[in-house]
């Protein structure tokens, strides 16, 4: 190679591996919590991705139907309302029921699995409030 040994070393090591936010950085337990092997696994069944994206697929179908029936303004208005409702959140360390989103989707009168077995008092989201707010605001 005519470029020399420095060029070979530069080409073989990517910049992200050496930088502070690369592969050699330790996992920050205070900000990100414990790592889970479950999050890194691939889906074990072909229907798992479909089940995971069920609400997104249902929203797309509803928007397409609404557009065919009422025109382009109806799904656009509903999407703007969804976006406005998603922006209004409680503090990151408090549980939010997202009642406004349930009302927009029409799920407020339905009793589902998460209504019975999703007890917020047993949630693992609770953390140190000051640290969570500083992380949300980008101070850390």
UniProtKB/TrEMBL annotation:
It comes from the Eukaryota. GO terms for biological process: proteasome assembly. Keywords: Chaperone. It holds the Pfam family UMP1. One of its GO terms (cellular component) is cytoplasm. The keyword Ubl conjugation does not apply. Belongs to the POMP/UMP1 family. This is POMP protein. The lineage of its organism: Eukaryota, Metazoa, Chordata, Craniata, Vertebrata.
